[in-house]
Automatic annotation (TrEMBL):
Membrane topology recorded in Swiss-Prot or TrEMBL: Multi-pass membrane protein
Keywords: Endoplasmic reticulum, Membrane, Transmembrane, Transmembrane helix
GO cellular component, one term: endoplasmic reticulum membrane
InterPro entries: Reticulon
Occurrences of domain Reticulon (ranges): 95-301
UniProt feature, compositional bias: Polar residues: 43-59
Subcellular location: Endoplasmic reticulum membrane
Region (Disordered): 43-69
Membrane-spanning parts: 98-120, 127-151
Record-given protein name: Reticulon-like protein
Pfam annotation, one family: Reticulon
Main location as per UniProt: endoplasmic reticulum
Amino acid sequence: MTETANPYHLTMNKQLNHMAPPSPQLSQDDLVRGLKVLGSKPLTPSESTELPSPISPANVQKLDKSDEQDDEDMVMVDDEFQMENDVAMLIYFEFMDLIYWEIPGRTGIILMGILGSLVLTRYYSLLYVLAGSLTILTGFNLIFVNVYNFIRTVWTGLPTHELIHPYHLHMDAHRQKAIIPRDLIDYYIHKAVDVLEIVVQGTVKIVYVYDTKTTGFACILSACIYFATSLVPTKVFFGAFILCLFTVPYFYEQHQDTLDESLTTLLEKSKLLLEKYRTIVQTHSTTLYQQSVVLLQQKMQPKTTME
């Protein structure tokens, strides 16, 4: 009994014979769609061609996103490092401008303000100074505004409530905008936090001995300050330090040549005196040593004779 050939199988066999083998670069959907096999177990490239699986576009996007994230992290680290360096350099230049009197008016105001505050708080309490300043300011303005309004009322014949306030320009400006600018406050708060971060990092490096020389210098300096403040009051010590800080670098820069010559001559004289006194000390020490040896020998001789 002969079996009749199914025309569908014949056409499928012809298509499969004339069909090129599937490319390993085809995706799973293209492979299934080309073979017209539905519901069967999907073939992996390793099972069919023994080639590694190609990277899909989704994986490529994930890799690109991970690379971009790594780049962003590196850029953020670089930006933070650059910001810390910028803040440190800004503080350094501002400090140098102050102690070298680049802007004399600003440096003088800051110096007089610090010294004046130290003098006032030495003899008076801080609350006393603040209350006295507020009393003087409000009392002066109270007298000025009332006398000014009285003179204008007498001169113009208008009641006081119809006159313009003497400080109307400042009051109108404050009504239109805030007295304390938020942007300026945010800027200085961020700068203060940056400065505090730099100070804390430097303190941590000193405490944990990041550099032996820096930690040793800081230890010696703190010990000197400790002993100096035990002998001198803190306000006097701080005032002398501020005065020297604002005067010594400026005068040294102005008279650098003369001071350098004086320092070199003093160093040479000190070296000569040191050599002179060192030789004197050496000679005296040798003579004392010889005399002590002779005395010991004289004391030892009677004991030997008696024996």
